[in-house]
Amino acid sequence: MADMWAFRDAVSGWAAGGPGEPASELAVRLGLRTAVLLEGPSDLAAVEGLADRRGRDLAAEGVCVVPMGGAMSVGRYAGLLGPPGLGLSLRGLCDEGEQGFYDRGLARAGAPPGGFFVCVADLEDELIRALGTARVEEVIEAEGDLRAWQTFLHQPAQQGRPRQRQLRRFLGTKKGRKIRYGSLLVEALEPGQVPAPLDDLLANV
């Protein structure tokens, strides 16, 4: 796993304008065949959490999950890791509102778009809808965040908003919370509750 983190770091440096040799050498050493491109670390936590629940070792399968630091980086990362670069097969998740941007970025990199699965708003929204708001609130309480959640609900901006939107906003109000709950919400899913984009992604890597 340490080598996989080193690969992610090498790719991040490469995307920022550094040399590509460290990433290329690590890709060969790790036997990588597929890169899963995700917007950020909360998506990473969810994808790897579900893979663990299903008994899969993605690294051993030659699959690296790469957080890009935002959807606008997809063209850059696709070019580095896909056909023009390391030649890896590309998979990933994208939000419905950014699908056109992804399609253009992948097309520029010569990568087929079919391996990217679309979330309506984002992955957190998919997980909240899959679990239901009452179950998500139970997870929040179990994590000791009930007081913070209740304080958040009393904010004027939250009055009258649908519970699902309130929960989605709450997860993004504190640094690190989205990452933590990315894993926690996946852990709370029953087998038949896995959101389709997440389920389809893991079925195709």
End-to-end separation: 18 Å
Mean pLDDT: 95
**How is the main sheet built?**
4 strands, parallel
Strand order of the largest sheet: 2-1-3-4
Q: Quote the beta fraction.
A: 5-15%
Strand/helix succession: HHEHEHEHEHHHHHH
Overall structural class, as computed from helix and strand content, comes to alpha/beta
Helix content: 40-55%
Judging from the principal axes of the Cα atoms, what is the shape?
Answer: elongated
Which runs of at least 5 residues are low in confidence (pLDDT < 50)? none
> What is the number of helical segments per DSSP (H or I, 4+ residues)?
11
Beta strand count: 4
What does the radius of gyration come to?
18 Å
Overview of the molecule:
This protein is an alpha/beta fold. The chain has helices spanning 2-15, 21-30, 41-53, 74-81, 99-108, 123-131, 133-142, 146-153, 163-171, 177-188, 196-203; strands spanning 34-38, 63-67, 89-95, 116-119. The protein has a 4-stranded parallel β-sheet, sandwiched between helices. The longest helix is centred in the N-terminal third of the chain and has 14 residues, at 2-15. The chain starts with a helix and ends with a helix.
Q: What key phrases describe this protein's structure?
A:
four-stranded parallel beta sheet; single chain
